[in-house]
Amino acid sequence: MKTLNLKKYYYPICKKDTFVEVPDEVADAIVEESRAENANDAKQHYHCYSLDASPGIEHHFPEQVISPEDILMEKETEREQEAAHALMMERLREALATLTPRQASCLHARFWEGKQFKEIAKAEGFTTSAAIVTVRNAIIKLQKYYIKRGWMEPLKEDAICTKKSPPKRNRKKTGAKKS
Fold first, then answer.
1. Residue 31's Cα: distance from chain center in Å?
2. Which of 6, 26, 103, 151 could be disulfide-bonded to 146 (CB atoms 3.0-4.6 Å)?
3. Can you tell me the distance from the alpha carbon of 136 to that of 160, in angstroms, rounded to the nearest whole number?
4. Model pLDDT for residues 103-137, shown as the tens digit of each residue
5. Is residue 173 in a domain?
6. Contact between residue 137 and residue 103 where contact means Cβ atoms under 8 Å apart
7. What residue spans of 49-169 are helical by DSSP H?
C-alpha cells in the first residue's frame, strides 16, 4: 500500500493536503497518468504557444493604443466613404434611367439578381444571344454616359464590351474564271 497526497494529483478539486492509502497498482496508475498529462501539457505549450502570439497582446503596448485622433479620423473616413457611395448610387440611378426598359430589366437580372443569360432570355422571351447583346449594349451605353458626364475617363485599351465586327476572311484569289 502506498500513500498519495491528493492535492498533488487533483489540485483544483482537493485544495488541502489529503493523504490516502491506495494499493500499489492504483498508485502507479495515478502517478503514470499524472506524468502523461503533464508531458502532454508541456508538448502542447511547446508547439502551440508563443509569447508573440498571445491573444490580446497587442492591447498591452501603448504604441498600438488607438488615440482619440485616430478614432476621429476613422469616423471622418467612414463619412467620406458613405458620401462617395451615395454619390455613386445617385449617378448610377441617373445613368440607368437613360436605358431602354428592356436593357434595364436585362441588366438588373444579370447583375443584381445574378441570373444566367439563358434564364434572362427565357424570362424576357427572346434568344440567349439577344440577351447577351442587350446586356452588352446597355453596358456600352452606360459607359458612354459616364464618359460624357466626366464621371469616368475614356478607356485607353479595348474593354470587354466593345462592338467590333468579326475579322473578314482573306480568300485566296484563284486563276479560274467564273462563267
1. 50
2. 151
3. 9
4. 999 999 999 999 999 999 999 899 999 999 999 99
5. no
6. yes
7. 68-96, 101-107, 117-124, 128-149
